[in-house]
Design a protein that fits this description.
Blueprint lengths: L1 E6 L3 H10 L5 E7 L3 H4 L24 E3 L2 H6 L5 E4 L6 H10 L3 E5 L6 H14 L3 E4 L6 H12 L5 E11 L10 H4 L1 H5 L2 H11 L4 E9 L2 E10 L6 E10 L5 E9 L3 E5 L8 E7 L2 E3 L8 H18 L8 H20 L3 E2 L4
Parallel strand pairs: 1-2, 1-4, 2-3, 4-5, 5-6, 7-10
Antiparallel strand pairs: 7-11, 8-9, 8-15, 9-10, 11-12, 12-13, 13-14
C-alpha cells in the first residue's frame, strides 16, 4: 500500500483526495494545509468549475494532518508527495520533496519557468525518484478516443484541427489572473491543450499567436502551430473572455484523411455536442464509457501510482511532455507581445 501525502487542500487537492478513494494499492495517509478549518475537515469553502463543492464534514479519520510542509516530508508513512498548491510553489516544493527521498506527483503546470521544470526533471533522474505531472486531459474519454485514432492511424493521417478551451473569469480564484502565481490564463488553462497537442503530434517547430491583453495580462490567445515534414495544420483558442452562464467549455474538430471528428464539451448545465465521427458519408456517435471528473483523475493518478510501484511507463504524465507544454505557453505569450512567430526549443 503506497502512502500518499497531499499538499494543498484547494479545489485540485480535494479532487485528488476523492480520486484516491477509488484506487486500490494507495491511501492518503497525510494532508498539509495552512487553513485550520480544512485540517479539521471543514472543506465547505472549496469550489471549482466542475464537480461537487467541498463538504462541511470531510472524513479525515486516520489521516495525519499538518500545517507545516516540513512535517509532512518528515512523516515516514508518506512515500509519495502529491502537490496541489499554487503553481508558483510547484518547483520549490517538488525539489524539496525529491531531496527528502519522496516520489512526486505535481499538478499542472509543472512549474512557471522552463528552467525550473528542467531542473525538476534532472533532480528526479539524479536521485532515482519518480516525477509525474498530473495532466488530466488524456484521461477524459473523448480526448483519449482521438489520441488513439492518431496513434493507430485508423482513419489515416491527421491533416488539420482546432481546439478550444474557454472559461468566464472565475470568481472562485483570483490567482488565475496573476502571472506571478498561476502564469496567467495561458499557462493555467491553455496548457491542457498544448500538452495534448504535444502528445498527439510531437514537438511543433514554431508557433504564432495573437491575443488580448488587459492590465498587462494576456487574457485570450489564438495560436497556430507549425510542424515539420507536412505535419497537421493545427490551431487553438483559449482564455477567460466568456461571459457568465458559459463558465466553462472545451472541444475540438479534427480532420483525418478518412474521417472528421467533432466534440463540444458541455458548459455548466447545458449539453454540448457529443463525440461525433463522420466517415464514409455517415455520422457515427462512438459509445464511450460514462465517466465523471473523479473517474478521470482516478485514472490519471492510478497510472502515476503504477509508474511508481512497478516502474511502468509514465505515458501522458511524463515530465518532459509537461516541460514542452509549458514552453509553448510561454512562447505564445512572447508571440502575442512581439507579433512574431517563435521557435520551440523542446527538452
Amino acid at each position: 500500500m503506497i502512502g500518499v501525502g497531499i499538499v494543498g487542500i484547494g479545489f485540485m487537492g480535494m479532487t485528488h483526495f476523492r480520486a484516491y478513494r477509488k484506487l486500490r494499492g494507495a491511501r492518503v495517509v497525510a494532508i498539509c494545509t495552512r487553513n485550520p478549518r480544512k485540517l479539521k475537515g471543514d472543506w465547505s469553502m472549496i469550489r471549482g468549475n466542475f464537480g461537487e463543492p467541498g463538504r462541511k464534514r470531510e472524513n479525515l479519520e486516520g489521516i495525519n494532518r499538518y500545517s507545516s510542509y516540513d512535517e509532512l516530508l518528515a512523516d515516514p508513512k508518506v512515500e509519495v508527495v502529491d502537490i496541489c498548491t499554487g503553481s508558483y510553489l510547484h518547483a520549490q516544493m517538488a525539489l524539496k520533496a525529491l531531496q527528502a527521498g519522496k516520489h512526486v506527483i505535481v499538478e499542472k503546470p509543472i512549474a512557471l519557468r522552463v528552467e525550473e521544470a528542467r531542473k525538476m526533471v534532472r533532480t528526479a533522474e539524479k536521485l532515482g525518484k519518480k516525477l509525474l505531472v498530473a495532466q488530466v486531459l488524456p484521461y477524459i474519454p473523448e480526448f483519449a478516443f482521438v489520441l488513439e485514432l492518431v496513434r493507430t492511424g485508423r482513419y489515416g493521417k491527421l491533416m488539420a484541427g482546432h481546439f478550444r478551451r474557454v472559461i468566464s473569469r472565475p470568481d472562485w480564484s483570483a490567482d488565475i489572473a496573476d502571472p506571478d502565481k498561476s502564469g496567467g490564463p495561458v499557462v493555467d488553462l491553455h496548457i491542457h491543450d498544448n500538452h495534448f497537442i504535444v502528445l498527439m503530434c510531437g514537438l511543433p517547430q514554431s508557433i504564432y499567436s495573437v491575443g488580448t491583453i488587459e492590465d498587462g495580462v494576456i487574457t485570450h490567445v489564438e495560436t497556430a502551430y507549425r510542424f515539420a515534414n507536412g505535419g497537421p495544420a493545427l490551431s487553438a483558442t483559449s482564455g477567460f473572455l466568456a461571459q457568465k452562464a458559459w463558465e466553462f467549455s472545451s472541444g475540438f474538430e479534427l480532420y483525418f484523411e478518412k474521417a472528421s471528428v467533432y466534440y463540444e464539451g458541455p458548459p455548466l448545465k447545458d449539453a454540448g455536442m457529443p463525440l461525433t465521427v463522420t466517415v464514409n458519408g455517415k455520422i457515427r456517435r462512438p459509445k464511450l464509457k460514462a465517466t465523471g471528473p473523479e473517474d478521470w483523475f482516478a485514472a490519471e493518478l492510478g497510472q502515476a501510482l503504477r509508474c511508481i510501484a512497478r516502474n511502468a511507463d509514465p505515458g501522458p504524465l511524463d515530465p518532459r511532455a509537461a516541460c514542452i507544454a509549458l514552453e509553448i505557453c510561454l512562447r505564445e505569450q512572447e508571440s502575442v507581445r512581439s507579433g512574431r512567430a517563435i521557435k520551440i526549443r523542446g527538452v
